[in-house]
């Protein structure tokens, strides 16, 4: 289904002459966000069922840790990116952030105690803080003039549909095969999303 979505988006993007950089960034996030769409709706259930002493309080604090780390770090990262000419700094910071997000998925396979949940959330928050400002900077610079609203809409439509299609599937995988396999699938999907960013390099070299 995800492959079909990418083909439809590619056909539409080609007919509308959408920037190739915007296309590859969108493909990357389809994989990343669809992968995390498998676990995000049931992450609190995982924490309650699989973590020693886990419960809704720990799940809430875990979310708080992620967003606090991301919020505190991402503005300095964005300022650092803006002070440097060119896009290669943005690109490599984005790659590092994406790899940290991917790592956090695989690390959840071994999580058993509350402190481990917090540690993984810190890593995920750092990944988000590095990846998102850099991703947004590159996307903004390559978005096509007079098509800003359309291209953002295409991006959100594609990624939201991907997350919607995987939300219910995550619960099925967890119930049928266990959380370890589920987090493994999330990690692989995130890694594939990071791999799509290689397409951005080819387009940046042509500029």
What is the alpha-carbon Rg in Å?
17 Å
* Low-pLDDT stretches: none
The description of the largest β-sheet is: none
Estimate what percentage of residues fall within beta strands: under 5%
The secondary structure category is mainly alpha
Specify the overall morphology. globular
β-strand number: 0
The total count of helices amounts to 9
Write down the secondary-structure element order.
HHHHHHHHH
Task: Kindly state the percentage of residues in helix.
Answer: over 70%
Structure description:
This protein has helices spanning 2-16, 20-39, 43-50, 56-82, 88-107, 114-142, 148-177, 179-196, 198-205. By secondary structure, it is mainly alpha-helical. The model has no long low-confidence stretch (mean pLDDT 87). Helices cover 85% and strands 0% of the residues.
Relevant terms:
single chain; 85% helix; 207 residues; mainly alpha; 9 helices
Please sum up the structure shown.
By secondary structure, this protein is mainly α. It is built from nine helices and no strands.
Write the layout of secondary structure elements.
Elements: H1 2-16, H2 20-39, H3 43-50, H4 56-82, H5 88-107, H6 114-142, H7 148-177, H8 179-196, H9 198-205
Helix pairs in contact: 1-2, 2-7, 2-8, 2-9, 3-4, 4-6, 5-6, 5-8, 7-8
